[in-house]
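Lab notebook, entry 283. We have the chain sequence and a SMILES string for nicotinamide-adenine-dinucleotide, and the next step in the workflow is to get a structural model of the bound complex before anyone spends time on docking refinements. Request logged below.

Task: model protein plus nicotinamide-adenine-dinucleotide, output structure tokens.
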Amino acid sequence: MPASIGDAAEKGCDMQQQAGGGATRKFNETMFRLDSRVAIVTGAGGGIGGAIARVFANVGAVVACLDVDADRARSTAADIEAGGGRAIGVACDVGSELDTLSAVARVVADLGRPTVLVNVAAVMDRSGTVLDIDLQEWERVHRVNLTGAYLMSRAVLPSMIKVGGGSVIHTSSILGRIGRAGRVSYTSTKAALLQLGRTMALDHAAQGVRVNTLSPGTVETDRVAYRFKELSPLQREALVSRIPLKRFGQTEEIAMAALFLASDASSFVTGTDLLVDGGGYET
Ligand SMILES: NC(=O)c1ccc[n+]([C@@H]2O[C@H](COP(=O)([O-])OP(=O)(O)OC[C@H]3O[C@@H](n4cnc5c(N)ncnc54)[C@H](O)[C@@H]3O)[C@@H](O)[C@H]2O)c1
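Result returned:
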């Protein structure tokens, strides 16, 4: 690790990204910017991942939009490019080691070494108890939601460490902290991501890598609309009324929290979980 800012500059490495670096940190307006940093966002074809990719590009990041759905990955990247940002869309199944390694190799070759990784990709579960959920369904959900974050971290960390560190964010959920009847596979993946994040934070602090999790409450995305489509207006109203801020979240509100964790504004934050849920945790 470079011993001083001068050292860091000489080595072409941004001291501001060093989690363990001792540089004095004073507020300035560029702390929330990601100028020229290469950021990988998985699940970037979806609601929250797409918003994170767009917000990061807006503050100067070069964004690799990864998704198993190649069209959706390319569509988010095309949107960013149309708005004057820089992005590429990459097809990648995060549950496949081969896919994660080749996607990251392409990002490094086309854009440079990533210093930000946001693991957003996830699948919904089929509702059921342990008696209803067969092993195949259990493994399908774990493969993407949990193993995907592990495989992406394995693929990205060597490059990130080579440039002095960076920020890794796993997307958990309020359902990683509380139980929810009939959601055994999804809730267990989201709880495990919290521990993956905390332990990675300890393991890689000395290498300048900060690792945190982000836990959204209910956010209005297509997947949530699909899940709620059976609800009557009255049932929906009852759900909203239990949230202290009396509404569901917006994708951009999750993206702004991700930006905090990705940027130098959170330079002393690692191993933590940022809950963004409108105050609904205790309800
Ligand atoms: N929307 C919410 O209310 C909410 C609440 C809490 C947590 N979350 C979490 O936020 C994240 C995003 O949720 P969303 O609502 O935007 O979902 P979404 O369904 O809109 O997006 C998920 C994206 O992941 C992609 N994906 C699925 N399997 C993949 C795989 N194997 N490899 C790569 N990409 C894959 C999908 O194609 C999709 O584009 C998820 O991790 C979810 O668990 C969402």
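Notes for the group: Residues 1-20 have pLDDT under 50 and may be disordered. Worth checking against the assay data. Residues 130 and 184 are 7 Å apart (CA to CA).
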